[in-house]
């Protein structure tokens, strides 16, 4: 009997000693891995991660598209659900969640891209793939800074400041950057676009998947940027670059303008439509549901963002593009109410219209401008133009790309005043070009922690 | 039934008791109380050195077989034990003297028990009588008003809701602030582990009728034994155990109904809504809109009262409890069954619980005792959407238009006219329809088994070992119907979530008590403890349910979610503590604990915690008359404890996984490598005085404390440009920086005002705590409606100050400087200022118990003073006409400015106004100060008029819970008891209950 107790206590003692060694206190992780890039696959996975972040509702998943549509001569916000009140009614405060969340998300995407861009991981056998993914990261970073510039830069609000440029991932959180100037910001965006295009091109790899950035997506996004810069700054060199990058896509890509019969349906196609150059994949697993663009646009959801009557009336009766509008709802550009459509970022039609505009501004080749624009309009059941003007090109651009997050930034680069609308769709106020409210507020959250950050005036 | 049970228990006892048949003669007698001469029922009579014995009956009588020369031991709680040697007489009547040291009971302290005589620390004890049969699902809620230094916020009237318990203020900014719960010596998990329900608490699996006492440990001396998890105080829960003697049964049944403790804001009817709305339209858009009267806005003349449609007419409340306990000097047992069922006042909100408990201690040999303590608790919870969810019934109450009908003419629910998007006219859902067709359920099973082994190595030296296995299994099901609501666009949706928490604790301790000379008493304790906590969950969800009534995930045609997660942490500790006293006059205690926690980086896993305390009982010095001054003990304690409540990824950087991109596997960067991160250090200093006067008829204690927290685990916001935003949305990292302090005092006074036939006991608990942020890494951190500023409380509101409505033109006004003086109607011109704090500074309870013959009355008032609550939804529901057209809001919208000179509550109604009148300001900040009549029980013991051989007592009672709430702020319409944040978030209101019960002991 006594022995049993001895054995028992001996056993207890043993368990005691075993349970208190350092191994017992190891921090065991089940769903994370140390922060080391150990394969090309890791770099690519980080790229996919960046795109997943970019499809968040606070960026391309919804907000970026809505900002570019609702602050314009296209749309008004009924504010029935209360969403986008600050951005659409120019009543934003520095604590506005939209201003804060989009800022946050874009820098989160940039952090992810910076790891890829600055990675010193080498794999001689797969150097092309590394070069390609780094190129994609550079293009996406250029585009991210372009988006930040459009929203937060002071280019159209009377200032000289751009946005903070964070070009390396520190992982410490100790950065407190100040804002670069507009000039510096533009320089970085241009450099990233050029380096990205070169890198993807030199890699020799051609991705056919529309949800990743291939060489044409890279050129097309660069063309969009240079057109913006060229018109804003009346800078012919940039317009020439816009023309050149667009031409590269038109000459070397195998994209076609979607025909009138397929036009409405093309917006329902995920990654298969012949006119689509770059989309951000969403899919049913990650569908955005009630936080999707579709839910904001369609009366089957909140239906708060409506097309203005004047804009609807501007369409010719035969224009197939008017078929996208149902009542005052634009509910077929992002047709699936569950928000599972992939988000179209760049379409071939835009590239054609970009080249035509740059062409006309520079006076390079009027016939080519005609043919570029006519390639679009004849596929919309409209008659062809002969000797198209700049104004007509811009009007076609507006009608082709409406509600896709482009118009507000087009109006800004064209130096236009921005109308603000009441919830009934009547003109409430006009924000003259240069008004401080044309730039989003730098989030108070950032100003609170970063003494080097300069606010945007007016908030 | 009863007989059968008795028979079963008897059979059971026959197995375990070794009955002795040494038959000599029968001795009988009556045990009385010396104080009043009344018989003492239930007293123990045991033959010394044997297992023979019994309890006295209702008349205090006993009858026992003994032989001459044996010693009978007579004992009863609160009376002095008496031993009498059996002589020639067959009758032995005994009068037991009152035990003056009755209040010097043994209290449960960390890792053991201690006589209150020796206690040098600050602790509050709440006994079973305050815990039994209350119609309250979660046991920690019962501390309210019953213990000093504890603030409890229930926040929601959801039955089974989690409560927030704060002991001596809030001692951390970003690490956990919940106390550590220790049940029967084992640290347990607490809080809400559900993932698809709005609120719950795993502690709600515990039946409060099984609890013997709850001890709240507050100062360093009491908590240092729990080291790195003790910073927020410790709540020790001790469950009932058997007492030697014949089986003692208790059976109680209770039934009643629930309603709202506070009515809450009223709603607008259709005509009132149209009136306010039309006025707003005219004011905004001109006289052309003057026709938008009730006839136009509401052509069908509908007037739906949505509040009636979501609320239960009679929410029921029931509980049944049964327990039996008893034993011999070798074996003691307690076993119980309990059932508790509570309906919330909103349809589809409910909680029920079934519990079973068995606790057995068996003396294997003279030296070795083993114990087994098994508890099973099963709860079923149904919760509702909260906050801004369209399915939240509290939201529907104020947001649904009265002009929308509840049902169509054919009796079906009205879900709008657009078949492609079935919604009511303002885009919201018909919530009563959802309440009937949707659900969120959680079924929690918690199984706990504690095995104890105790070995008395020699006189005073004891080794004990304890293994606790604790498994919590939560199965959650949720369903959104395909016809209407969130499930519509996806043809119905269902979720099946499974969550498991396994926790094991292994403790070994060595305790040595010895005395040097006559008066030098020592006690030394060494403990080793290891704990491992493993969490895992699996989630599945699907959409596409063609047929209603099917909820199983595999029925859904479209898989939505298939997720799983695991985390774990481990904790290891070595503890040494010692206490010394000299002659019961002078006391010194010390404790040291070395503890390791897996959540910290390699170099910082281990920390040291300690305490030292002393006490001096002046009453023992012979300076005062011993009968007048029974106790006057001065106490002081100081020490260092910690707070390690952070997650397992708080100190590392990583790549994480999750989701997909076009079928590809993404990686995400996250976390900040943080090797220097360590415990938050908490240094409580406590001065106390315990006293007892007039044979302890007047007792009480006073405590003053300063609790300093240093190296705050502070989640410092990082620049958003760092990209270090976590999945939670926070861009921050933990650092050890800053300090805060909680200071305050606690007074507890008890008196036996009358004693004898008529008894009146009274007790008041009063606590004051103030909080100050003494240093902060960054100053003036504004977070929503709050600010962190050095020198201020961490719960300080920071917002613009409302200056009322401009009587001339109905504009909203704010004070420009945020305090007083000049006003402005431009929101942006007004500055934000400090506007009070959200945690009550003064809290307490007032208990009065009366009894006369068989009658008894128990009352409890609780109060919380000096704090403010903010109505987080008033921006919509009291919007000055801005949202009136779509969202009617509160009835108080009627009180609005209309004509110059009007002194109105609300500004001029203007539809879609941009004047920011309902933006965050003190307009919606109210004093939360209140006094609540929390408990009234009126009972009558039938056996006092119908003496029974069979029953010891038959108590019939009625009880009211939260009968009346007095609010100091007339403008506050909601229940003043809200979340710790102080924000009213359209939660279910706390309950008022009326119950009727019978409790039988035999």
TrEMBL record, chain A:
Location(s) in or outside the cell: Cell outer membrane
Positions of the RagB/SusD domain: 339-459
Keyword rRNA-binding: no
InterPro entries: SusD-like_N (IPR033985), SusD_RagB_dom (IPR012944), TPR-like_helical_dom_sf (IPR011990)
A GO-annotated cellular component: cell outer membrane
Keyword line: Cell outer membrane, Membrane, Signal
Residues of the SusD-like N-terminal domain: 91-227
Keyword Transmembrane: no
Entry similarity comment: Belongs to the SusD family.
Protein name, per record: RagB/SusD family nutrient uptake outer membrane protein
The organism of origin for this protein: Bizionia argentinensis JUB59
From TrEMBL, chain B:
Gene3D superfamilies: Carboxypeptidase-like, regulatory domain, TonB-dependent receptor, beta-barrel domain, TonB-dependent receptor, plug domain
Domain of life: Bacteria
InterPro entries: Beta-barrel_TonB_sf, CarboxyPept-like_regulatory, Plug_dom, Plug_dom_sf, TonB-dep_OMP_SusC/RagA, TonB-dep_OMP_SusC/RagA_CS, TonB-dep_rcpt-like
PROSITE patterns with a match to the protein in the record: TONB_DEPENDENT_REC_3
Membrane topology: Multi-pass membrane protein
Keywords: Cell outer membrane, Membrane, Receptor, Signal, Transmembrane, Transmembrane beta strand, Transport
Transmembrane portions of the chain: none
Protein name: TonB-dependent receptor
The organism of origin for this protein: Bizionia argentinensis JUB59
